[in-house]
């Protein structure tokens, strides 16, 4: 009990990132139960909204994480992703130009202007910050442009994991076109890459400053947790390709986590 108390005190309550870690702790507390519910098919139509809550909590924790690291300088990149994703999703859902012909359902909760679920905005925060950190931790020297290209690619791979869950399992959104991947057309993944690429360019300097100031690897934990959830959901449902992509991304996250840990020990 004493060691558990010390861990709580040093790693959460008395840590400079206290608010971010307290918020993320809420996610950690409900994660095992959610995973068990998914694994044993205990998720009912009435409880599918809980996934949106988890995405919101993850996103909020990363907004607080960046604030802890660089203060007011975190406001602009966070607003770029939040407002940018809102505009992109609204335009995409109302015109069918960007992603294809789709609509969000009511499952994810409150929708801005009756179109874009708030949870989706925080999901973009989690996916963007997590993917960027995964790329930045690679043991190769990359330019800002190269990091943006790889971050856009990682976000696109992340969407390949999301689509079967969102469309076939939880019905977060519906596709009206006969796309090649669970209803999603090619242009959807092209749009995910382009948006992820642009977001990465916009947040690159603030996030590198956060990393230079000793910010934790919380974004890796956030996106890793989502990959674990998608792995279980897609695995149980028999969506083999999506589950394999989760394994690949989790492998990369584990690898770069180990590299970061070694670098910090040797610093």
Write up what this structure looks like.
The chain is mainly alpha-helical. It has one domain. It is 73% helix and 4% strand. It contains nine helices and four strands; from the N terminus they run ααααβββααβααα. The strands form two sheets. The protein has a two-stranded antiparallel sheet. Helix 4 crosses helix 5 and helix 5 crosses helix 6. It is globular. The chain starts with a helix and ends with a helix.
Features:
267 residues; mainly alpha; two-stranded antiparallel sheet; two-stranded antiparallel ribbon; globular
Short description:
By secondary structure, this protein is mainly alpha-helical. The protein has helices at 2-13, 18-39, 50-70, 75-95, 118-136, 144-169, 186-212, 218-237, 240-266; strands spanning 102-104, 111-112, 116-117, 173-175. The chain is built from nine helices and four strands, in the order ααααβββααβααα.
Output mean pLDDT: 92
- If helices are DSSP runs of H or I spanning 4 or more residues, what is the number of helices? 9
Query: Radius of gyration from the CA trace?
Result: 18 Å
Number of domains: 1
Stretches where pLDDT is under 50 for at least 5 consecutive residues are: none
Coarse structural class: mainly alpha
In percent terms, what proportion of residues is strand? under 5%
What gap, in angstroms, lies between the N and C termini? 32 Å
Strand order within the widest beta sheet = 1-4
Question: What's the story with the biggest beta sheet?
Answer: 2 strands, antiparallel
Number of DSSP strand runs: 4
SSE run: HHHHEEEHHEHHH
Shape: globular
Helix percentage:
over 70%
